[in-house]
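User: Predict the structure for this protein chain, please.
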Amino acid sequence: MNGFNIGIIGERINPGFKSTKALFENQDLAGIQALAVKQAEAGARYQNVNIGARALTDPQWMARVIEAIQEVVTTPLSFDFPSKSVQEICLSCYDPAKANNELPIVNSITEHRWDLMELYGKYQFKVILMASERVEDGRALGNKTADEIYSTARRAALRLKNEYGMPLEHIFIDMSVSAIIADTEGLNRSTVDAIKHIGADADLKGVHMMGGLSNIGQQLPPKAADGSDLKHCLENAFLTLTVEHGFDFVLGTPWRGYQRLADDHYVLTTYKNFLEQKGSNALRAVRKFYKA
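Assistant: Here is the predicted structure, written as structure tokens:
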């Protein structure tokens, strides 16, 4: 199923999926456990846990969800909440012994949301580090160029290593893959180039690079000209260009499977052409995906 040497962080325990939202609304712990087992059996290396806004209003429910998942799988968990108080509850509930002594992941920190690192020491964990924004003059600014993304990732990763003693292997840099349908500023090209910069930086050897690939094909037709899954082909095109440079984890659905595309695959060649364009030329390049 997986043609690349990449790990999958299972994304399905998230109310963004209608079927999972129903499980949460019905407080169906058995259903959530079955979903966790399905992801584990499909090869998930970690499982992301996000129960939505209810985490702030009903922390005991969140604790029950975490404990229920750990009753049935040994997959380490990733806790997907921007709140320090919520993360502390998650970390206090997590039992490493039930996950083969693997540490959990805090998802996610940014330079502007560094307070989550105040938990480090009392708890041990890995982190997902967002490279999509930086702090400049006390303000959070979005990164658009490859250099901005790379510089932010390097600065924050080395801060984690030098100030907190965190091994680089415990850092997952989220490269924030963008939808191509609205990408007139070359954000996809910036992300691909930043991955190359990070992968070539000897000081960052050991860090993981990851991203949620489902955004890349948003609002495009479901099928490619040859009848294949266009959105999935785009995900595979992105991986074909980046895995060799160190992109090694995907936040995704474990049973989806990923395969390297042949050099002459038309989705790959069209995506490469798209990466070279900006503005209206980029939108014209996207239209090529519609053509039979």
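The mean pLDDT is 93.
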